[in-house]
Design goal:
- The protein is mainly α and 75 residues long.
- The chain contains one helix and no strands.
- The chain has one helix spanning 2-74.
- The mean pLDDT is 93.
Length: 75
């Protein structure tokens, strides 16, 4: 009777070990995905900053164009 209990415990420990190994493998994939996501977020923030700079440049160019049109109209 004791051997049956020992066998059941060994089988349960083996099942837990296999499940833990699979879980650790998935955690590695999740870690890599998190790193890729952080990299994409940093890229998106850089693009957003560049877009804001371009927007300011465009506003300045638009203002200069309006001033030039006013000068030409005044002649």
């Amino acid at each position: 009777m004791l051997w049956i209990w020992i066998g059941a415990v060994v089988v349960a420990l083996l099942a837990l070990t296999v499940a833990g190994a699979k879980l650790l493998g998935q955690l590695g994939g999740l870690r890599r995905a998190a790193v890729r996501l952080q990299r994409r977020q940093a890229d998106a923030m850089k693009l957003q900053a560049g877009a804001a700079e371009l927007e300011q440049t465009l506003a300045g160019l638009q203002q200069r164009a309006e001033e030039m049109q006013e000068r030409l109209a005044a002649r």
